[in-house]
Design brief:
Strand content of chain A: over 45%
Largest interface: A-B, 26 and 31 residues
Shape of chain B: globular
Largest sheet of chain B: 7 strands, mixed
Number of helices of chain B: 0
Number of strands of chain A: 12
Helix content of chain A: under 10%
Number of strands of chain B: 11
Oligomer: heterodimer
Radius of gyration of chain A: 14 Å
Radius of gyration of chain B: 13 Å
Order of helices and strands of chain A: EEEEEEEEEEEE
Number of helices of chain A: 0
Order of helices and strands of chain B: EEEEEEEEEEE
Shape of chain A: globular
Structural class of chain A: mainly beta
Strand content of chain B: over 45%
Structural class of chain B: mainly beta
């Protein structure tokens, strides 16, 4: 079975500081991991994904994520947070049993304080 | 290239009614997936369609159904609405390479359904 955990419901950081949004996963086989962001009254926007290769994945809007197999983690990071980064962030893992469905974490609300 | 579009954006229905939601994928995308988002259950996979066939299904009752047309547009239908069906319904499209779990899914803005 596949599952994703986002241990923090909410993360607050000051503008200009680095941010980290945590994600751990559980899958059988190779993990395919994704980060999405959701702004109010909007759908999900794709940020980045890990398939294979380098453990550090770079994505949109200056975000990156680090894949750590031993810790089964895929934390989202950004060196310098912007107020406009305030949103709901979802980590997701691709199913290993079916075709094209994603298992999502419960989401982490990021607030960047000016 | 235009993104995923969903209509209508907002919908109010009463218990017992049925509803049909529509999704137009990104041009060239052949796979369409549907998700339900609620505060209590989060984001849950409903089903996926590829080449007019349901390829995968989540754990939802039979009241939830869908279909896909030859132009890859998809509709989902919910019959005999219940209060708990109030949610944001998101559609996502991807290229649809069969069995490719690495594909990126691109989401539409969603349809917010309120059941009274």
């Amino acid at each position: 079975a596949q599952s994703v955990a986002q241990p923090e419901d909410q993360v607050k950081v000051a503008e200009g500081n680095p941010l980290t949004v945590k994600c751990t996963y559980s899958v059988s086989g190779n993990p395919y991991l994704f980060w999405y962001v959701q702004y109010p009254n909007r759908g999900l926007q794709f940020l980045l994904k890990y398939i294979t290769g380098d453990n550090l994945v770079k994505g949109s809007y200056g975000f990156e994520a680090e894949f750590n197999k031993s810790q089964t983690s895929f934390h989202l990071k950004k060196p310098s947070a912007l107020v406009s980064d305030s949103a709901l962030y979802f980590c997701a893992v691709s199913s290993q049993t079916g075709a094209n469905n994603l298992f999502f974490g419960t989401g982490t609300r990021l607030t960047v304080i000016p | 290239k235009a993104g995923v579009t969903q209509t209508p954006r907002y919908l109010i229905k009463t218990r017992g009614q049925q509803v049909t939601l529509s999704c137009s994928p990104i041009s060239g995308h052949r796979s369409v997936s549907w998700y339900q988002q609620t505060p209590g259950q989060g984001l849950q996979f409903l089903f996926e369609y590829f080449s007019e066939t349901q390829r995968n299904k989540g754990n939802f009752p039979g009241r939830f159904s869908g279909r896909q047309f030859s132009n890859s547009r998809s509709e989902m239908n919910v019959s005999t609405l219940e209060l708990g069906d109030s949610a944001l319904y998101l559609c996502a499209s991807s290229l649809g390479i069969a069995g490719d779990k690495q594909e990126t899914q691109y989401f539409g803005p969603g349809t917010r359904l309120l059941v009274l």
